[in-house]
Amino acid sequence: MGVIQIDSVNVLVRSQELPLFARLGPHPRDLIERATGRGELFEYWVHEASHVPVEHHPLHRWKMQQRHRWRGVDAVARRRSLVESVYARVRDEGPLCAGDVSTRTGPKGPWWDWDDSKRALEYLFWCGRLTARRRPSDFARIYDLPERAFPAAVLDAPTPSERDARKELLALAGAHLGVATLSDLVDYHRQQTAPCRPLLRELVDEGRLVPVRVDGWAETAYLDPKARALPTGDRCALLSPFDPLVWNRARAERLFDFRYRIEIYTPAPRRVYGYYVLPVLLNGEFVGRLDLRADRRNGLLVVQAAHAEQRFASRASQQRIAEPVATELATMADWLDLRAVEVERRGGLAGSLRSAVRRAQR
After folding, report:
1. Total Cβ atoms within 10 A of residue 140
2. Contact at 8 Å (CB) between 232 and 285?
């Protein structure tokens, strides 16, 4: 994948853990934390806030020279004395969170209510003078100097030009996606189309990407020459809303005829599928979607709604889908230290899935 998008919603599990579960199955829950601690991963604004391999650090340094995209953070960047005083505290005192340097005098407001010291930390994080790792207890960023967090070889690596870095990011996106349009390639690392278009032509001329036509796609696609089709088997995977396979909604619809929108910010009466809905991938097809919640107090993995895609709406199809999904839910519950799976009645797949879960839990 090369990029693991980070999200704070914890109704089921932190979203960045789900892509690993989908690909590896049960694994140590602190895998990302330990990899970050060893200097193998670092967090930066790549495809939004993301974990990326530390060896890719040089490819993102050009962005660190640009203005921050958020006006409040960019404004604080011009207050040099504040920025330098916050930097000095991290340098002299060691890793700190925003609360350690807070200048707030009143109560904290909702959501992104940052004081100026937090904005200064975010600016220093953006420009690469600080890095950060997540505190497991509350997901807060803990800021530190890159010299104390990254291998020296990474920091000493040459900094490519913006042009060369963008080109390598396009090539990496091609390798991660296998086959993709220009818009797909650009979106993977949140680049812009205009500077990438001539770089794509160079990658084609060099044979690093191959132009192809994909049935049903209006745009030219580009194939990574090392990509190969893999057998899917009868593998079932439950995907995060921020999984690289579906985070580009237009691509997911074009590839799989699967229209997916996250409804976290949709008022409850207007939600179609639910609050935190995981697409279900089975044998290379999206067959349904599950609204999942971890009821940690009662030790339950709760399926609040289970929907089959329209082309799998027949009873026979739903029964065929339900068995591997029930198995995957049981595996997920065990991985999350939950004692059982409970399926509520909402959604056309709920009945078949409830029966399959009961059989699996006997």
Report:
1. 14
2. no
Sheet with 41-46: list strands edge to edge: 4-5, 48-53, 41-46
Task: Report the predicted TM-score, pTM, of the whole model to 2 decimal places.
Answer: 0.92
Q: How far apart are CA 2 and CA 113, in angstroms?
A: 31
- Length of the chain equals 362
- Alpha carbons within 13 A on the beta-carbon side of 227: 19
Separation of alpha carbons 306 and 273, rounded Å? 8
How many CB atoms sit inside 10 A of residue 269's CB?
5
CB 263 within 8 A of CB 274: yes
pLDDT digits (tens, 9 = 90+) for 41-56: 999 999 999 999 999 9
What pLDDT digit, counting tens, does each position of 204-218 carry? Answer: 999 999 999 999 999
Burial (CB count within 10 angstroms: exposed 0-12, middle 13-18, buried 19+), residue 238: buried
Asked if 321 and 307 touch (Cβ cutoff 8 Å), the reply is: no
Contacts of 342 (CB under 8 A, 6+ apart): 295, 300, 301, 302, 303, 357
Contacts of 232 (CB under 8 A, 6+ apart): 283, 284
> CA separation (Å) from 216 to 158, 188, 255, 275?
42, 22, 9, 32
pLDDT for res 107: 54
What distances in angstroms separate CA 128 from CA 68, 78, 243, 282, 283, one per listed residue?
A: 12, 16, 26, 41, 42
Q: What is each CA distance from 94 to 28, 91, 97, 155, in whole angstroms?
A: 28, 6, 10, 19
- Nearest to 60, CA basis, from 197, 176, 159: 159
Contact present, 220 and 214 (Cβ < 8 Å): no
Q: Are strands 221-223 and 179-181 parallel, antiparallel or unpaired?
A: antiparallel
Output DSSP code: residue 239: P
